[in-house]
């Protein structure tokens, strides 16, 4: 089992894995559709930690080797509505951007 970014880096470089494709699909959703100013700061921090920082860290681990091998495809799958949303208007702009 790989634990954390440093552990992942050790496995990738230690095993000399030939990675050409990275799919970033890790995500944390808000507990419900709500306005930004309503949910607790800890919820926001957790979402940012996984969805933004985690994605960036994983990409940094593999991108150097991918560029060196001239084979580099990175797919970032964004967070969409994964819960029963009481009002589709909360996600309308987000979904339009991701389309």
From TrEMBL:
InterPro entries xrefs: NAD(P)-bd_dom_sf, SDR_fam, VLCFA-Steroid_DH
Keyword Acetylation recorded: no
Domain of life per record: Eukaryota
Classification via Pfam families: adh_short
Gene Ontology terms, MF aspect: ketoreductase activity
Recorded GO CC terms: endoplasmic reticulum
Protein name as catalogued: Uncharacterized protein
Keywords: Oxidoreductase
